[in-house]
Design brief:
By secondary structure, this protein is α/β, with parallel strands linked by helices. It is 36% helix and 17% strand. It has a single domain, classed as HUPs (Rossmann fold, 3-Layer(aba) Sandwich), CATH 3.40.50. It contains eight helices and six strands. It has a six-stranded parallel beta sheet, with helices on both faces. The longest helix is centred in the N-terminal third of the chain and has 13 residues. It is globular and about 45 Å long.
Length: 193
């Protein structure tokens, strides 16, 4: 089955920035597929602006209709909460022993990787593909030249789901930032208004 890159996010909503990164990763690295893992609503965090899991998954599915090698995943929906990436990876490795799962993350996340639960276990068992992000601070020195960490020269995309939600609430036109079908779904469901 080969190498699959896991791109985690709340995708609230999924926008063209996510698609640009995922498509770049699958087209310009040795990853065979990308799974966009929709992270579930954390019951311990009150987040009024976070849409229900199934709606965010539906939008990801709609956005990915034209991408053969990028798929959605709801794998975390059925795992105990609060969930940690290390647990998701262990679950996937057990379920799909023939697949080499890799993580996809922005440079900003790499900077805080040393604070993740069992990050050493993640690095021991999985490669990490990092895309550039504008941001402050340096990557921890021990992670800078780590053999399992691969920098991918993807475009820097400065679009945020928060900005899209706020803009919709202010009745601004956000059409270029999401696919037409995702916009139609959001509009019909009256999301983020």
């Amino acid at each position: 089955m080969g190498k699959i890159g896991l791109y985690f996010g709340s995708f609230n909503p999924i926008h063209i920035g996510h698609l640009i990164i995922a498509n770049h990763m699958v087209e310009h690295s040795d990853l065979d597929e990308i799974w966009m893992v929709v992270t579930p609503h954390n019951p311990h965090k009150k987040k009024a602006s976070l849409l229900a899991n199934h709606h965010r998954l539906s939008m990801v599915d709609i956005a990915l209709e034209d991408f053969e090698n990028i798929k959605s995943s709801s794998i975390e929906f059925n795992l105990p909460q609060p969930n940690y990436t290390v647990n998701t990876l262990a679950h996937l490795d057990e379920k799909f022993p023939d697949i080499d799962f890799c993580l996809i993350m922005g440079e900003d996340n790499l900077k805080s990787l040393h604070r993740w639960k069992n990050y050493e276990v993640i690095l021991k068992n999985h490669h990490i593909y990092v895309y550039p992000r504008m941001g402050e601070g340096a990557v921890e020195h021990q992670l800078k030249n780590h053999p399992k960490i691969h920098k991918v020269d993807a475009p820097i995309v400065q679009i945020s789901s928060t900005f899209i939600r706020k803009s919709i609430a202010q009745k601004k036109n956000i059409l270029p930032l999401v696919t037409a079908k995702v916009w139609k779904y959001m509009d019909e469901m009256n999301f983020y208004r």
